[in-house]
Amino acid sequence: MKPEDLHxxxxxxxxxxxxxxxxxxxxxxISAFAVEALTDLVFIELPKxxxxxxxxxxxxxxxxxxxxxxxYAPVTGEVIEVNTALPDKLEILSTDPYIEGWIAxxxxxxxxxxxxxxxxxxxxxQCEEEGH
Length: 132
Fold this sequence. Notes:
This protein is α+β, with helices and mostly antiparallel strands. The protein is built from 3 helices and 9 strands, in the order E-E-E-H-E-E-E-E-E-H-E-H.
């Protein structure tokens, strides 16, 4: 997955939506900008498979040496898979946030929030504004 092909929440989560067996599945992670801002990650609490994720609500958290930060679900649906490699290899979030660094896959049950996501250009603009 290339960052240019993804959609982004204003809270720095990225989303890739694919049609799988007639259902829309969102793969979710946090952007390189977010990982850089958090610095020195020490822990991630993954969501539980089967849990309901609500768009724009926290669905897991990451902890850095500075703070604990919520990761917000960019879509509404059921968590169907989590990246079980992450808790033991947090460096993946820094080295490969868009391919190996995905956090969860969510079966979308309400598509209404997809329209709120930013494309790459709009997200880059937001990051530049936050960086000043």
